């Protein structure tokens, strides 16, 4: 059940030197040609963008991100700069930002850490320590608390082992045992043992969890979602629910997160940009479909209604053809 459906796949006859020259020309002299920047950077894959940046420095002795920042502004700049960073570095910057300053943005922690596969988390963990010279787990421990902190810490500390397990495939017998353990820790007893939920949902691969949730339904007669909503509350409930929903369908979870970012007073632009950029090479095509199925509106029409100018043009370009 793979939902890999990118909207950005890169261009076949890629020429980094040509793109670098076109971008340099678009930023030189009077005024900037924003459309050229949009056309190139929203259609190249992240790997291709990194190659362009390398050539740019090599040819012109300049930093492409710095040049873009000095020419662009507002949310448009945010989109373009996000596109230019290697995927895991961009997510590390977002994690760092949501933990810095006053209060922590728990929703963003959940969005980044509870919805990604073990190999993706492992890459984030490595990049974070390299960029900030402190382990992600340690930074998170200082910014969160209780069962929520324990869950996130388990996710981050078990990522490398989990990435190795992922190759092993699904173990049906172990799935049954885990499902029984979840049942015993929740519905079957007075009060819930969050520790068991945390351990299983943080350690197992998405494929293994899918099997565990099937078994859980057989044992309990209700879904693991129903159990979590009934037994657990607060931030931990949101975090565990995100894992469960992403195991069932990550595109549906991201569609609902986008919906929340655009509903109500003002748009949460940071979330909107992060999801569109970070899922564009994974499953944004599927997210678009889910969005329309769930809300009876196209994601493109909603984004057009919430944004304007070059910012709008860049996001819509990343959404790919309607």
Per CATH, the architecture of the domain at 104-250 is Orthogonal Bundle
Q: What is the tally of helical segments?
A: 20
What do the pLDDT scores average to? 94
Largest sheet: none
Shape assignment: elongated
β-strand percent reads under 5%
- Radius of gyration (CA) equals 21 Å
| CATH hierarchy, class of the domain at 104-250 | Mainly Alpha
Which fold name corresponds to the CATH topology of the domain at 104-250?
A: Annexin V, domain 1
Q: How far apart are the first and last residues' alpha carbons, in Å?
A: 24 Å
* Helix content bin: over 70%
Please count the beta strands (DSSP E, at least 2 residues each).
Answer: 0
Indicate the structural class: mainly alpha
* Uncertain stretches: none
The CATH homologous superfamily of the domain at 104-250: Annexin
H/E element string? Answer: HHHHHHHHHHHHHHHHHHHH
Brief account:
The chain has 322 residues and is mainly α. Helix content is 74%, strand content 0%.
Any key phrases for this structure?
322 residues, mainly alpha, Annexin V, domain 1, 0% strand
Architecture blueprint of SSEs:
Blueprint: H1 16-27, H2 34-41, H3 46-60, H4 64-71, H5 74-84, H6 87-99, H7 106-113, H8 118-132, H9 136-143, H10 146-157, H11 159-168, H12 172-185, H13 194-203, H14 206-220, H15 224-231, H16 234-262, H17 269-279, H18 284-295, H19 299-306, H20 309-319
Helix pairs in contact: 1-2, 1-3, 2-20, 4-5, 5-17, 5-20, 6-7, 6-8, 7-16, 8-11, 9-10, 10-13, 12-13, 12-14, 14-16, 15-16, 16-17, 16-18, 19-20
């Amino acid at each position: 059940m793979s939902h890999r459906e990118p909207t950005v796949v890169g261009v076949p006859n890629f020429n980094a030197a040509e793109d670098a020259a076109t971008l340099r020309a678009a930023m030189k002299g009077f005024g900037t040609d924003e459309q050229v920047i949009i056309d190139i950077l929203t259609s190249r894959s992240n790997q291709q963008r990194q190659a362009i940046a390398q050539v740019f420095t090599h040819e012109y002795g300049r930093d492409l991100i710095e040049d873009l920042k000095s020419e662009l502004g507002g949310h448009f700049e945010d989109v373009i700069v996000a596109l230019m960073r290697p995927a895991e570095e961009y997510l590390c910057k977002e994690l760092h930002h949501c933990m810095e300053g006053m209060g922590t943005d728990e929703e963003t922690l959940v969005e980044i850490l509870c919805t990604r596969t073990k190999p993706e988390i492992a890459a984030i963990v490595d990049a974070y320590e390299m960029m900030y010279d402190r382990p992600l787990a340690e930074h998170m421990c200082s910014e969160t608390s209780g069962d929520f902190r324990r869950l996130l810490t388990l996710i981050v500390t078990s990522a490398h082992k989990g990435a190795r397990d992922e190759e092993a495939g699904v173990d049906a017998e172990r799935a049954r045992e885990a499902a029984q353990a979840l049942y015993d820790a929740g519905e079957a007893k007075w009060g819930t043992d969050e520790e068991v939920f945390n351990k299983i949902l943080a350690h197992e691969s998405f494929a293994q969890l899918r099997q565990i949730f099937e078994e859980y339904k057989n044992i309990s007669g209700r879904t693991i979602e129903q159990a979590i909503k009934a037994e657990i509350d607060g931030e931990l409930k949101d975090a565990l629910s995100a894992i469960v929903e992403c195991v069932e369908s990550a595109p549906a979870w991201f569609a609902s997160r986008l919906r929340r970012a655009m509903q109500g007073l003002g748009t949460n632009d940071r979330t909107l940009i992060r999801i569109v950029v970070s899922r564009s090479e994974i499953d944004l095509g599927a997210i678009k479909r889910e969005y329309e199925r769930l809300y009876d509106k196209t994601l493109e029409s909603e984004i057009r209604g919430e944004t304007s100018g070059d910012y709008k043009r860049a996001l819509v370009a990343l959404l790919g053809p309607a």
